[in-house]
Amino acid sequence: MMRSLLPLQWLRAYETAARHRNFSAAATELGLTPAAVSHQIRSLEGELGFKLFERLARRVELTEIGHAYLPSVSKALDDLLVSTVGLFGAEHEAQITVRAPVTLTGSWLAPRLGRFYAEYPGIRVRILAGSWTGPGESTEVDIQFGNGNWPGFESTLLLKAPSVVVARRDAVARFADDKACVAALVRNGVVHIMGCENRWINLARKYGLPEADIRVNVTTDNSVSAIELTRSGFGPCLVQNYYAQPALESGELVTPLHEGLEIEEAQYVLTPRSGQRKNPAAMLFRKWLLDEARADSALARSA
């Protein structure tokens, strides 16, 4: 009968070999011989009563049950590593590289980063702007905006929010309803964000207005610039609500509609599907990011 707790070294050998799809590469990472890795995995298979790997001529492949078992083992090992580093600290000061859209960095990440530094003073963060760059394995924490599907990467939802119309107070008159307001705004001219032009089209369709009525005053490539252009009198912009919050809370800008526009895209944290060894400090930062997003979501639901 299987013991209640499996030896940790067996599980590490299995998880590492599964990432590399190679016993020799796993042995190099773990500081063992390939024979030792193979022996530990056979011991695990014997204890479980199931075959986890198919041994082929020059490689190994996970069996169906080997695939099914991997996510829970990886998460358990990751959680143990994150907890250990979080409670007891890393051996040395660490620096991690984070790539995030400049808009997300300025409006959401920057105001919260001080809390991370206060909690983990031994970890320093280097942030790269990534407005239009795709994900890359060289970045330890990668935040991307999109539909959640990036080949070669696991994606975890970070932030999803509706888009809201943001306008100057002096540009918004009293209208009978939201349809009349949208009709006036698009006729007077709006700020477009590259890659998100369909948002104004979808908003017009929502209220039964023709696309041809949309007049574009200026186009930019990010939400921060769009908000600044709106401040400067170039017309309303349509941005996710967490980008707009600082300007709305200060009273500089207003959202004239009663409801926002739901969009499919969201912010995701990406993890490469590769044999790359995970950086404990980066894993800790990733967990902190997700905890911050969950706290924001809980606060919004209670408001």
From TrEMBL:
Domain HTH lysR-type, first and last residues per copy: 6-63
Keyword Ubl conjugation: no
Lineage: superkingdom: Bacteria
SUPFAM superfamilies cross-referenced by the UniProt entry: Periplasmic binding protein-like II (SSF53850), Winged helix' DNA-binding domain (SSF46785)
One Pfam family of this chain: HTH_1
Keywords: DNA-binding, Transcription, Transcription regulation
Family assignment from sequence similarity: Belongs to the LysR transcriptional regulatory family.
Name assigned to this protein: LysR substrate-binding domain-containing protein
